[in-house]
Amino acid sequence: MNIPRHFLDIKDLSTEDLRDILDRGLAYKRGEAPDGIEKPLAGKSIALVFEKPSTRTRVSFEAGIHQLGGQAIVLEPSGTQLGRGETIADTARVLSRYVDGIMIRTTLVEKLLELADYASVPVINGLTDRTHPCQMMADLMTFEERRGPIAGKRVTWVGDGNNMAATWVHAAVRFGFELWLTCPKGLEPGKKLLKWAQDEGGAVHVTAAVDEAVSGAHCVVTDTWISMGDDVGDSEHRRRLLSPYQVNADTMAKASPDAIFLHCLPAYRGKEVTAEVIDGPQSAVWDEAENRLHAQKGILTWCLRC
Ligand code: CP
Ligand code: NVA
């Protein structure tokens, strides 16, 4: 039996494999069939497990699997035995007897890792509390389409040091770009992650000073101030902490004149970003959302070796 090729985190894959996935995704976007196979998922089924809400991840996976000739089976805990306490391990072993791959969006990274440990088919991380690597592949694709190779460029994350921020740290290391994270004190990415980046030789910098971080950036990225599952306590306090980190016209004016703006969406205009920026000429968010479809075709065919 083949050892399943999981897509759990950017940091777990080599740069070569990540490039292979992106190249496949771009080929699908151009309407080409990598390796000449038009419907690589013909006769195959993929389970899509959602423990949190989703628009993009659900629809881009469902549509993408259909376009590749396969079948998507969406599972939500309330409608399965997971919701009644069946273990992740048992679910992994059972689903592996029916389907050819499992995508999961889950509350805790430990559940993703348990699923991957017990599944005998590839497991894809569709977002956890820690990371969102499918989104990252779409973000990389979007940046490179607009501005060429990302290696050596400067990317600035502004706002909450959440699961997307952590995924940008992984990507900075694997793709060799400079990453600045500007977050309020107490909302920076975890020390362990930053130490990993440092040990790997990554150019990752953290500062509370927005101007220093954004100066000369080729890409400015932000995300919601409250992620799914966050226990924020006093939400007014959090809003006050994050308000200076709103991406607005002043922020973009400090970046490189050709900087693009990215946001994984859903966005909250007037909070983490102004309408002027997200709906303005530097915003690449609609291409970014579209690229989920293409990048995930790369991920699926890489994982399933087809
Ligand atoms: N960006 C993203 O993953 O969106 P959804 O939560 O809608 O899937
Ligand atoms: N950080 C956000 C990303 C949503 C796609 C969340 O986890 O809710």
What does this structure look like?
This protein is of the alpha/beta class. The chain is built from 12 helices and 9 strands. The protein has helices spanning 15-29, 56-67, 88-98, 109-118, 133-147, 163-175, 191-199, 210-214, 235-242, 249-254, 275-278, 285-303; strands at 45-50, 71-75, 101-105, 123-125, 154-158, 178-182, 204-207, 219-222, 260-263. Strands 7-6-5-8-9 form a 5-stranded parallel β-sheet. The protein has a 4-stranded parallel β-sheet with strand order 2-1-3-4, sandwiched between helices. Phosphoric acid mono(formamide)ester binds next to helix 2.
Characteristic terms for this protein:
alpha/beta; four-stranded parallel β-sheet; binds norvaline; binds phosphoric acid mono(formamide)ester; 42% helix; 306 residues
Strand order of the largest sheet: 7-6-5-8-9
Q: What is the N-to-C order of secondary-structure elements (H for helix, E for strand)?
A: HEHEHEHEHEHEHEHEHHEHH
> What is the CA–CA distance across the termini?
16 Å
- Tell me the total number of β-strands: 9
Low-confidence stretches: none
Strand content: 5-15%
Q: Which cofactor or ligand species appear?
A: phosphoric acid mono(formamide)ester, norvaline
Morphology: globular
Report the average pLDDT across residues: 97
